[in-house]
Amino acid sequence: MPLWGSAASAPPAAEGDAARAPSGSAGGSGGGGGGVKVIRSLLPTRRRLRLDPPAKLYFPYEPGKQVRSAVRIKNISKSHVAFKFQTTAPKSCFMRPPGSVLAPGESIIATVFKFVEHPENNEKPLDKCKVKFKIVSLKVKGPVEYVPELFDEQKDQVAVEQILRVVFLDAERPSPQMDKLKRQLAEAEAALEARKKPPEDNSPRIVGEGLVIDEWKERRERYLARQQIEGVDSV
């Protein structure tokens, strides 16, 4: 039984059209459009996104705790692309961000949170997790704001980018996967903190009701101080 709805297959009418096609038309330039549709349906979908890691989500194995994984998502197409996560375990997993819109060449590190259940027989099921995640994409026109309804309005244009399998890592054993995960999580946290900060205001700071600029005020104070000193000297 599939975890998600299977991809749309070639319409049944295509086979009928091919069967009713005149003899000699098969393989020729005069063939019906049904055969073209069947061929197109068999071609692999062109990727809009590049994932790193490409097919797995690595989590530290810590039963009874909420753990994190990360995946870098990059738009490798020439247009803006919206993406969103789907999972087979929505009650124990969530994603940050759950979706977004990426400009051509733009990338983002998404963080995935998962609660790890205690094993039934005190075993470490490092390779027995059945939870899966799916990333779907949609080509959009220009830099639009991400809303989940984008995918409902254009269901026929939604493409499945990748189904990610959950892999648990021994949290007490160093590994290249664990080192890379820590780096990606740190980068994701830094990007999140940067987005929280208000944009820097490089304009001159204005005091009071916007009539005196700090620099001018300092110059005036220095000028008055010099006037006082010169006045004392003259006396």
From TrEMBL:
Matches recorded under PROSITE patterns: MSP
GO biological process: endoplasmic reticulum membrane organization; endoplasmic reticulum-plasma membrane tethering; response to gibberellin
Regions crossing the membrane: none
Domain of life of the native organism: Eukaryota
Entry keywords, A to Z: Phosphoprotein
Annotated ranges, domain MSP: 48-169
Entry GO terms, CC: endoplasmic reticulum membrane; plasma membrane
Chain residue ranges for the region called Disordered: 1-37
Residue stretches of biased makeup (Low complexity): 1-24
Any Pfam family: Motile_Sperm
Purpose of the protein: May play a role in vesicle trafficking.
Protein name (record): MSP domain-containing protein
UniProt source species: Sorghum bicolor (Sorghum)
